[in-house]
Every structure is written in structure tokens, then in C-alpha cells.
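Sample entry copied in:
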Amino acid sequence: MKNLPLADPGTPDLRSPGRYLIFVMRAQAGTLNVAVLFGIVWMVAQALMPAFIGRAIDEGVAANDTGRLTFWAMMLLAA
């Protein structure tokens, strides 16, 4: 648990909105990096959904293979 109040982050650079945003991003670097990582994982999972559905249809439904259909259904749930 963090001790409050937090340490003084310093004086923000107010010369432009961009410089102020960079100041805020540096202060929140750890949280921002974790958020970017989770966003990338989420987008990759979303991009893989159509591929998994296609493979499930090709290998499971068209080939009448329940095992492969179950495998690709589990892959869909994992993504």
C-alpha cells in the first residue's frame, strides 16, 4: 500500500499542452506501460477470433471431427 500523500512530482512544464502531457505520462509511466500491454493483448485476442472460428469450421464441422471442434472452441474461449 502506498503512503499518502505521495511525494511531490515536481513542477509541470506548462509551455505547451504536449509538454504537460509528457510530464503527466512520465509521472504515470508504470501504470501507462501496463495499460498499453493489456491493450495489445486484448487487440491480438480480438484479431485471432475470426481465424479461430475459421479453423473450427474447417477442421471440426466440415471434417466432422468433434475433437478438433472442441479444441478450437476452447481456443476461442482462451482468447
